[in-house]
Each structure stands twice: as C-alpha cells, then as structure tokens.
Amino acid sequence: MRTRRRTATAANTDHAPARPPLQGLRRACATLCLLAALFAALPAHAQCSAVNKAFSPGEKVDYNLYFNWKFIWIKAGTACLTTDTATYDNRPAYRFDLLANSSKRLDLFFKMRDTLTCYVSDLLEPRYFCKAAEEGKRYTVDEAWFSYANDSSHVKQRRTWRDGRIQEMEYSDTRCIFDMLSILAQARSYDPDDYRPGDKIHFPMATGRKVEQQTLIYRGKEDIDADDDRLYHCLVFSFVEYDKKGKEQEVITFYISDDDNHLPVRLDMYLNIGSAKAFLKHVEGNRHPITSVFTEG
C-alpha cells in the first residue's frame, strides 16, 4: 500500500432540492458499467475471448450516488455490482448483476429501480444482456443476444414496453460488440500501462435498443477519496460526446483503482442542470489486494 496523509472528503448535506436532476441517477446506473472499457483498445476483429485476470466469483461492490443542485449535495440512491459463476446455453459462464435504487427521499420526485444482468462465457465473450428499468412512470426491458460467425460479432436486440409494444433490431460488426456489463467483465483484465494522456479508445456498445459508437480518453492519474473513508491512487478517463460541429463535450470522468482489480472508485457526471457523483462505499470478495489505497501517514 502507498503511504500518504489523507485529505478531507467533501461533506454531504441533508438539505433537499426543490427538484433534483433526475437524469443523473439514470446515467449513474448506466455509466458504472461503461468504465472498464478504459483499459485497452478493443479487438479490431471479432475474436472476443480473453483471460480473466481481475475478478473472482463472489465479488461485491457497493456505491453511494449523489446529486448537486444549486450548490447542495444530496444522497440520491445506491448501486450494487455483484459477480458469480453460472451456466448459459449449457456452458460455464459468469453472471453479473447491477442493482440501482433511488433513495426514499428522491422517490417523492422520481422513483428508480433498475436491474441489469449479463452472462459472459468463461472466456468472457458476451452472450446475453438485460436491463429492466422502472424509471418514474416508465417501465422498459432491454435485451441483447450475442453470437459469432464468419469472423464477425452479431447482436439481436429487443426493447419491450409496459404496454406490450416491442422494438427489435440486429447489428453486425467485424469488431467485438459489448454491452454495459460484459465490457466491464473483460476490459478489467487489460493492462493500462501502455496508455499516455490524450490516448483515445473507440468501441461499439449495444444498449438493448441500438448500437452506439463510444469514445473514451485517458487523462492521467490522480488521488481520490471514496465513501469507505480511504484514499485511492486512480487512473483517470473521460467519456466524451461530440456535437454536430465535432466539438468534444465531457460527459463523465472515471476514477479507477490503479491496481490489478481496476475497481471503479468514483464517477463524476456532468449534466445540463447540475452534476452527479458515484462513490465507492464498500468492496468484498476482490481477487487481488487493493494496493492503490494510501495508509495513514
């Protein structure tokens, strides 16, 4: 472990806003799953297998979610990411679940109960993804099924609404296509040492409704406080979007533990009407020692 005197964390406040920035909680849930794509340029062909070097079944990571509204920070909800062994299509697999819930206070304005599940093969190939989302008055189920043929990745996607409406689409790519959780499973095992500040990573992401081209930029390293009262040495990446004129816009900043676990420690999300943050609260069942933590000094 590194040695350094800790600095104070930003304090939370109990003052409730008149109306919270609701889309921030939805984005917090989704982007907790994108961050592991930071660790390697993805394969340039449809060879989607990899060796797991980062996690073990039984790993569980908890997060606190916060909103900033008119200079006031409030706790907006919690998220939990779990890993386990499973069987999919009669073959050994891993199963990942991400549960995100708005707090009771936020439920008065906007109730969110999101459940994301995915299966990957024992070689970390994407197989199936599902997101069941209750967000306010809306309830949708997004699903994606992955297959591989002719040196290409194929994905069939379906969105089902509460009233029974269904939207389907299919997509193929010579690159590997990931969903929000399978990218987390695979890319955590990649080695980020070859990255230099400013390097960009591009990859296709299946959301259950469409496939989007994503861009991440490596920014360098920084020391970050988490909600477990520890200070972490982190790799810093940015998830960006581009407007019609090609101008880059920062959407999320990721802070990832600089050790073999590559744990998401903090996410900063930039919204039109405020900002949101997700802080690591607790981790158990991690495969490697968390050497990115500073001891008191």
Description:
This protein has helices spanning 23-31, 104-107, 182-187, and strands spanning 2-3, 60-69, 72-88, 91-102, 112-121, 126-135, 138-149, 152-161, 166-173, 200-206, 211-225, 231-242, 248-257, 264-271, 274-284, 294-295. 6% of the residues lie in helices and 53% in strands. β10 and β11 form a beta hairpin. It has one domain. The strands form 2 sheets. It has a 14-stranded antiparallel beta sheet. Strands 1-16 form a two-stranded parallel ribbon. With 297 residues, the chain is mainly beta. Residues 5-22 and 36-46 have low confidence and may be disordered. It is built from 3 helices and 16 strands.
Biggest β-sheet description: 14 strands, antiparallel
Please identify the oligomeric state.
single chain
Can you tell me the overall shape? globular
Q: Any low-confidence stretches, pLDDT <50, length ≥5?
A: 5-22, 36-46
- N-to-C span: 12 Å
Strand order of the largest sheet: 9-8-7-6-5-4-3-2-15-14-13-12-11-10
**Overall strand count:** 16
In helices, the fraction of residues equals under 10%
